[in-house]
Write a structure and sequence with these properties.
- This protein has one domain.
- It has a 3-stranded antiparallel sheet with strand order 2-1-3.
- Helices cover 17% and strands 21% of the residues.
- The longest helix is centred in the middle third of the chain and has 8 residues.
- Strand 1 and strand 2 form a beta hairpin.
- The chain is of the alpha+beta class and 70 residues long.
């Protein structure tokens, strides 16, 4: 998983998908699960993240690109 600095955070407010650069702000929100998926680009990943219930019901989904560290 990539570093938090490279993350995009997705929230759904009403019918609008809102994205922000960077990780989720609150650390208490960080624990909730992990999805690993393959997407063609960031826009495709945002579309998937917007369908996750956490993003729709007051939480957020953090998207991190895959990175190799060695």
């Amino acid at each position: 998983m990539g570093l938090p600095e490279n993350a995009t955070t997705v929230r759904v407010e009403g019918d609008e998908t809102v994205t922000t650069a960077g990780p989720c702000v609150g650390t208490r929100e960080a624990v909730g699960g992990c999805f690993i998926l393959e997407a063609d680009d960031l826009d495709a990943a945002v579309q998937v993240a917007a369908r996750v219930p956490a993003a729709r019901y007051g939480g957020a989904v953090e998207i991190r690109p895959a990175e190799v560290y060695w």
